[in-house]
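Please produce the structure of this protein holding succinic acid.
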Amino acid sequence: MKNSRFTVTPLAGAIGAEIGGVDLSRDTDDAAIAELRAALLTHGVIFLRDQELTPASQMEFARKFGTPAIYPFVQGLEDFPEITPIIKQEDETVNFGGLWHTDTAYLERPPLGTILYALEVPAAGGDTEWASLYAAYDALSDGMKQMLEPLRAVNRSEKGRVAQTRASAIASSPTDLSNTELVAEHPVVRTHPETGRKALYVNLAHTSHFVGMTEAESKPILDYLFELEIRPEFTCRFHWRSGSIAIWDNRCTLHNPINDYQGSKRVMHRVTLEGDVPA
Ligand code: SIN
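Below is the modeled complex.
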């Protein structure tokens, strides 16, 4: 990038880049934010290391990126309700959001993106994977693209085992909506409002069936798409250290926090940013 202040090092072929030379206690001017946004649009998820953020400074940074949203099912921090603590204690065996998903696809307006900050991480394990939904769409045959193009799909907050992955967080900090199922219909092929690229917008955790078809009829095609989306060449994997930040574009990526650190604690602070109606 011209006049680039930061280094951008891709992490894998299809998705993910580590941004070097950023210090968020200093680099929050408009030019720095524009550079980070450009890297996000190009790489789908970007990673920053060694940042020291308080809840107040995470919120300040998030506000430069967009409008922080409230997560419907778990209460945020007392003074910062848009920050959802994502905590797995030593004695817990299930991790929050522990399967491939896009964040809150069951909302009419799913988030534009998410900013996840690591406070405490296990000595080994607890990595997160991301997958490019552009790459998945591009890999479809012309025939499949034509078939999927007019379809819409139903996304549910209680599909399969996803509800179980938030049970512990809800038990400690419920909201009025914690026991309500949220459901939204979205196009199966989504056009990214900023890049104009097409992305395959279905995900294992939330997408239950195509509108106008039964779950049984939809299942073979959805299963095929869920598998395609996470082909290793469409993914990247990030190893967290305390002070790491991931910022992902929730309109064109999936992610999957790996649950391989039983007996250790992991603490993250998550802020999602308000998004648009997928089209
Ligand atoms: C999430 O799905 O938002 C959490 C991701 C993670 O804990 O790595």
